[in-house]
Amino acid sequence: xxxxxxxxxxxxxxxxxxxxxxxxxxxxxxxxxxxxxxxxxxxxxxxxxxxxxxxxxxxxxxxxxxxxxxxxxxxxxxxxxxxxxxxxxxxxxxxxxxxxxxxxxxxxxxxxxxxxxxxxxxxxxxxxxxxxxxxxxxxxxxxxxxxxxxxxxxxxxxxxxxxxxxxxxxxxxxxxxxxxxxxxxxxxxxxxxxxxxxxxxxxxxxxxxxxxxxxxxxxxxxxxxxxxxxxxxxxxxxxxxxxxxxxxxxxxxxxxxxxxxxxxxxxxxxxxxxxxxxxxxxxxxxxxxxxxxxxxxxxxxxxxxxxxxxxxxxxxxxxxxxxxxxxxxxxxxxxxxxxxxxxxxxxxxxxxxxxxxxxxxxxxxxxxxxxxxxxxxxxxxxxxxxxxxxxxxxxxxxxxxxxxxxxxxxxxxxxxxxxxxxxxxxxxxxxxxxxxxxxxxxxxxxxxxxxxxxxxxxxxxxxxxxxxxxxxxxxxxxxxxxxxxxxxxxxxxxxxxxxxxxxxxxxxxxxxxxxxxxxxxxxxxxxxxxxxxxxxxxxxxxxxxxxxxxxxxxxxxxxxxxxxxxxxxxxxxxxxxxxxxxxxxxxxxxxxxxxxxxxxxxxxxxxxxxxxxxxxxxxxxxxxxxxxxxxxxxxxxxxxxxx
Length: 643
What we know:
single chain; alpha+beta; 25% helix
């Protein structure tokens, strides 16, 4: 609960002067009590405790002494002991003020004493009408008690494993992110300041470290080089699933907008570009932090206390419409955000499962981890708590889920680590997993020269026509990585301004069974006269020439290519397998080619630039003795006839 200071002020300056004990204290006890109160006001907690210990020796029934000792434990964040002493004080009072039950319950909630906290909150309500200042806290406290009681009865599977000394140390390591292929890990490390630390009042400095994986093992961590690491505090980072973009938080920088701002950098080869501030309208004079990038390569989620939200810190999103250009941020709304704080968003590689930290939804009492799914109507489902013991009465920091949706990474200072906060991983309970994601990885190059190419790579859901993954290949190496969501029918589309587009189709099983990633090198062929290009995402009804709806994405790509290259004329060619008679196959292939021709005409491509032809079964590109080969032969192509 967020009114700890109010509790202390009330207890110190109201309760202490109005407590009615079962026995009248002696003058010596009263004198010791006054000294303890004065020490407490001056934050001399050890000395105050000494005076109180003397009171307990003289009179162990003096309620105000227990109340004051509870205040000391309250302000020093020892909630378990604070609750014990407050309860003892209540037991010794003839008529405790109702607010004391509320204060006691708040301390019990912090240490997971849910049944005791529930009882004290109910007693508070039975004795008075809730003070307007604490009405919401009482309601939220009762919700958390009910949730906590059930969560303790039904714990989720949870076996955290320390990531070892190549990642962790005696310092604090936290906020881990991992690429979709799980070959690179980046985290924030908190270390003591040195002579180069820019923040004059900071005792510590945050930097980024990374680990690569070799032969299935994480290698020794290394600091990220300049210009990512600097003499400022860098933290709360996100690497895009394809590993191309790095977003992070930088606070109180000279070039910033105030408080904490979001920055971005792009990987080129083995180096990161100079970081750039996202600028307006994303960054403001308020706190913008904790970014996470969706696999579509465009949507960035983050937390901010900017105006226009629903509470303290809210979750927001913006779109990168082109590299370095961002839209006005949009609040995720009351389906996600509450009157309290929502932080640490993590959008999974499926692009539709959002994990975040909140103290506004019912939970274990502190800041818990929740998840919500993006529904088909673009609204968010009601957040679900990940349960105990993933969540505890303490504040949780964040969570990161691998692309397969099976392993979660988080940081904790639990006993048995290397010191401070360490990074752990655990197998995520099946009830809280996102949609599994695999990936395609490879290189794009020129078919003739074999030189690497920088090309855009998109994966489009053929049912919704929505881009689910977007990335670019590296300009120096041609390498790319693109996430693929299971249970979808997707089109792979590779575009380069100097080449006709390349396409392919992937239909992935709905139930994930350790689906292996795809490794594919793609060679782009230039648009020479006579060159032929297969349209792999043109679909027809069985034994008919009617175009299926899913063909629209591929056909619109062809329309776009022809409009951008107005001098190119093409022939649409239809092909079949060897099943059926010659005349039947020839007519079917001709009709299918004509259907594509007509579609292009309807999209304002001049008929003078187009022709069509049916080849039947006469030009196979694979053996017809297997179903796989026959499927390859049933195809639609376009051929460059002039330019």
